[in-house]
Amino acid sequence: MAEVIDPDIMEVIDGRLRLVGGRCGACGEIEFPRKQSCRDCGGVDIAKVGLADHGVLWSWTVQRFPPPSPPYFGAVDDFEPFGVGYVELPGEVIVEARLTESDSDRLRIGMPMELSGIDVVTETGELARTFAFAPAEQQGGLR
């Protein structure tokens, strides 16, 4: 597995990718990515917290053209459209993320999603692991 692209927002524990957020010690608000101070109360006692690896698709779209460089470092001719969405991690936070699925027939608001990882090309041409969310599958298809 490639190294994670940003260890401040994700880590690998027991071979599984996990997002890292912050919880305010004063009010309990959770944010992703973790900040120096709380957006709700301004508190500065922000503890590192692992976020849920399952959620529901809150909204989504398909990116059909290459993003600007940086952060996109792939060759324009190699670009393939990809899904981008907001995934609600219940009781925690809504995360903006790349999706592993871009077929509009296989995505729907409210569907269960699970944290996944994908490799991306960095500015040095090396691969790094970033997070994405995939439709959660159950026997016989999507649940």
Description:
The protein has 143 residues and is mostly beta strands. It has one domain (10-142). 0% of the residues lie in helices and 48% in strands. The chain has strands at residues 10-13, 16-24, 30-31, 46-50, 54-63, 82-89, 93-99, 112-121, 127-135, 137-138, 141-142. β10 (137-138) and β11 (141-142) form a beta hairpin. The chain is globular and about 50 Å long. The relative contact order is 0.21. Mean pLDDT is 89; it is low at 138-143.
In percent, how helical is the residue content?
Answer: under 10%
Q: What is the number of beta strands?
A: 11
Spatial strand order of the main sheet? 5-6-7-9-8
Principal-axes geometry comes out as globular
Query: Main sheet, how many strands, which sense, barrel?
Result: 5 strands, mixed, barrel
**Rg, alpha carbons:** 16 Å
Entry keywords:
5-stranded mixed β-barrel, globular, 4-stranded antiparallel beta sheet, mainly beta, 11 strands, 143 residues, 0% helix, single chain
Structure in a nutshell:
With 143 residues, the protein is an all-beta fold.
Summarize the helices and strands and which ones pair or pack:
Layout: E1 10-13, E2 16-24, E3 30-31, E4 46-50, E5 54-63, E6 82-89, E7 93-99, E8 112-121, E9 127-135, E10 137-138, E11 141-142
